[in-house]
Each structure stands twice: as structure tokens, then as C-alpha cells.
């Protein structure tokens, strides 16, 4: 943190906080809130989650000790956190459901259809910090967008951006859950906002719809069963008993958001960066399975999908093809990868071929 800054004079902290929210909206954020750094309850829940092994192979969740839940340990001098959300849904929910219902189509989680959100939000938050500095002079801050040990959802909840629902995603009462989060850790003594409170009530739609029953109880997610974890974070073989439940989902899963009644209030994003690129919203499994490594990295340039790598891309699509109809085209596509140099790809291709031959369905 910056050792000195001019504080919030000549205006009050309340005035500066309002300016920050106004500037944030002008930069494309739908909402900006401010909170302190106390995350005692979230820290306890995180510890219990890690102790239960629900993080799977995401070792980074435990690697930084209490720096994740104590912002001033991660960035010394942090007094308040500015939390911001940006809508990303590029289409109507009916179109999303149609993509899921067509077994020949590849389903990519809607947050990953466009440009990598990390870059978009980081740039906007940096601009917000520069606006603050232009107003009050140099101050201490760090920008975070899902890029460091930061408890973004508990911070956003405390900042009044919504509540953490039973599916463990953040929900806003007038905007649903289709949005990204980013943070500014600051050394400014700003007034904090009031949380909204939980409004899930008796609803359990997200628990009922989860294809792999990864939401093991309200507000409890076992990542080891979650399709987003299995298709994105998990680097090895996808457990065979879970493969049939992946359906045509090749990158992430949106089912729990699709059934959430609060998402009837969600609006479409106005950000061009979040619009689908390379036809990913309508692409077929066979088309995407035909991408060689060079094509994959070219088409995934600037996308969150790029971090997956070509090997896991093929692994995921092989499983999806095995879950679909046994067409001549699907079998031919899988056979074209039967001798792939990667044992991981070969294993999932063989499984898919067995499924389509009738021995696995």
C-alpha cells in the first residue's frame, strides 16, 4: 500500500464513496459496493470446506493460509474493499436451454463465450482507481479479478451486491446471478454498505437440478462432483461414474443458474467483449473436436477457454460425444482421435466409442 495519501479531503468519505459508485457505473459496472475487511464467518466456512476435501485438487485454495480471508495480510494497509459486479449474459435464457437440449451441440458456460473477463474487469477497475487518484491524490490500492487469494463472493455479499445462494453463487435481488466480480483493495477509510440478507427461502431448485448432485446441501458444494470443476479445473481422468452426467457440457455448467427464480430479473449484457466469439454459442461437438492444437490456441486467443489446453479440450468433447447419439459422424470423429498421442485423450475416446457401440449406454 502507498505509505501516504491525501485522504478524502476536502470532501467527506461519504462523498467520495458516492463518487466511486458513480464512476464505477460510468465504466460499465452495474453496481459498486464498499465493505470492511472482516471475514470471520467466511473464514470458518472456508476452513470446514477445505478440511472436508471438497476443493478436490485445487490446492491453491489452501496454499495461502489466512491471506485469503484476511485482506490486510494479503495487502498490508488495506482498510476497505471496493467490490464491483458486471453483467455478462449475452443472450436470452431460452437460447441457453436450447443449446443444452441439443445433444449434438457443444455447451460452453456462458461466462466463457466471449473475451476473457479477467482482462475486461481488470482494465475497468484500474481506470476506477485512476479516477479516485485524480480526485484525492495518490492512495494505496490493488486490483483483483479472480487472480489471487481473495474471497470475492463473501466480500461482495458484505458490500451489498447480493447474497450467496444455496448453489454458492452470488445472487442480486434485481439482477440474478449472471455477473462477474472484481475488487479494489484500498487504504481509504470509506463508509461501508449494508448487506442485503438471504432471500433463497425454501427454494431448492438448484439442488434438485445439479446433474452430478454436487450441491450436497444448501450452501455446500463438493467441487469434486461439480461439472465446472471436472471440465475446467481437474487435470486428470474424469471419474467414469460422473461422465454420463456431463451431457454435452464441455466447459463449465450453468444449470443451477438457469433454474434460479431470481434470474428472471437478469438482463442481457451490453458489453461487446462478452458476446460469443467463433460461433461458440452454436458450435457442434463434431466441429470443435476437429480443431487441431494450432486451431484451438488461435480460436481461444483472448478467451478464458485457452487455459484449458488442447488435451483437456479433446477430453471433454470426447465425453460429450459419448453421451450423444451414435451417429456415423460421431463415431468417425472419435475414431479420428483413437491414436492420439495423449493417454488422457485416448482413454476418454475409447470410453465414448464403447458408449456409442451400446456397451455403455
From TrEMBL:
Binding residue positions for tRNA: 235
SUPFAM superfamilies: 4Fe-4S ferredoxins
Domain 4Fe-4S ferredoxin-type span(s) in chain numbering: 188-220
Keywords: 4Fe-4S, Cobalamin, Cobalt, Cytoplasm, Iron, Iron-sulfur, Metal-binding, Oxidoreductase, Queuosine biosynthesis, tRNA processing
Primary site of residence: cytoplasm
Group of enzyme by EC: oxidoreductase
Cofactor(s) essential for the protein: [4Fe-4S] cluster; cob(II)alamin
Cofactor, free-text remark: Binds 2 [4Fe-4S] clusters per monomer.
GO molecular function, one term: epoxyqueuosine reductase activity
Biological process according to GO: tRNA queuosine(34) biosynthetic process
Active site, renumbered: 146
Binding site for cob(II)alamin: 68, 146, 170, 181, 228, 253-254
EC numbers on record: 1.17.99.6
Source organism superkingdom: Bacteria
Pathway named in the protein's UniProt entry: tRNA modification; tRNA-queuosine biosynthesis
Reactions listed under catalytic activity: epoxyqueuosine(34) in tRNA + AH2 = queuosine(34) in tRNA + A + H2O
Family note: Belongs to the QueG family.
Reported function: Catalyzes the conversion of epoxyqueuosine (oQ) to queuosine (Q), which is a hypermodified base found in the wobble positions of tRNA(Asp), tRNA(Asn), tRNA(His) and tRNA(Tyr).
Subunit: Monomer.
Protein name as catalogued: Epoxyqueuosine reductase
Organism name: Thiorhodococcus mannitoliphagus
Lineage of source species: Bacteria, Pseudomonadati, Pseudomonadota, Gammaproteobacteria, Chromatiales
Amino acid at each position: 500500500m502507498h505509505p501516504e495519501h491525501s485522504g478524502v479531503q476536502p470532501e467527506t468519505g461519504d462523498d467520495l464513496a458516492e463518487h466511486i459508485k458513480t464512476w464505477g457505473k460510468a465504466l460499465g459496472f452495474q453496481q459498486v459496493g464498499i465493505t470492511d475487511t472482516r471475514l470471520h464467518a467466511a473464514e470458518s466456512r472456508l476452513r470446514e470446506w477445505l478440511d472436508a476435501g471438497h476443493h478436490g485438487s485445487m490446492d491453491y485454495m489452501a496454499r495461502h493460509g489466512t491471506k485469503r480471508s484476511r485482506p490486510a495480510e494479503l495487502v498490508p494497509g488495506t482498510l476497505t474493499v471496493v467490490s464491483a459486479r458486471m453483467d455478462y449474459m449475452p443472450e436470452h435464457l431460452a437460447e441457453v436451454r436450447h443449446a443444452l437440449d441439443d445433444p449434438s451441440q457443444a455447451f460452453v458456460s456462458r461466462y466463457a463465450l466471449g473475451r476473457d473477463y479477467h482482462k475486461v474487469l481488470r482494465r475497468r477497475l484500474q481506470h476506477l482507481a485512476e479516477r479516485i487518484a485524480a480526485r484525492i491524490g495518490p492512495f494505496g490500492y490493488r486490483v483483483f479479478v479472480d487472480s489471487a487469494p481473495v474471497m470475492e463472493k463473501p466480500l461482495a455479499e458484505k458490500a451489498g451486491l447480493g447474497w450467496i445462494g444455496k448453489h454458492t453463487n452470488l445472487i442480486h435481488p434485481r439482477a440474478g446471478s449472471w455477473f462477474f466480480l472484481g475488487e479494489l483493495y484500498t487504504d481509504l477509510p470509506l463508509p461501508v454498505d449494508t448487506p442485503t440478507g438471504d432471500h433463497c427461502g425454501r427454494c431448492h431448485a438448484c439442488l434438485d437440478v445439479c446433474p452430478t448432485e454436487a450441491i450436497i446441501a444448501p450452501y455446500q458444494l463438493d467441487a469434486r462432483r461439480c461439472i465446472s470443476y471436472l471440465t475446467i479445473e481437474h487435470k486428470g481422468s474424469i471419474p467414469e461414474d460422473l461422465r454420463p452426467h456431463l451431457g454435452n457440457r464441455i466447459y463449465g455448467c450453468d444449470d443451477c443458474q438457469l433454474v434460479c427464480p431470481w434470474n428472471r430479473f437478469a438482463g442481457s449484457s451490453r458489453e461487446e467483449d462478452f458476446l460469443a466469439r467463433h460461433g461458440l454459442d452454436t458450435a457442434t461437438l463434431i466441429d470443435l473436436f476437429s480443431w487441431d492444437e494450432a486451431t484451438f490456441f488461435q480460436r481461444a486467443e483472448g478467451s478464458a477457454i485457452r487455459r484449458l489446453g488442447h488435451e483437456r479440450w479433446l477430453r471433454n468433447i470426447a465425453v460429450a460425444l459419448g453421451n450423444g447419439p451414435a451417429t456415423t459422424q460421431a463415431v468417425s470423429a472419435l475414431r479420428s482421435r483413437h491414436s492420439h498421442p495423449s493417454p488422457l485423450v485416448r482413454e476418454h475416446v475409447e470410453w465414448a466409442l464403447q458408449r456409442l457401440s451400446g456397451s455403455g449406454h
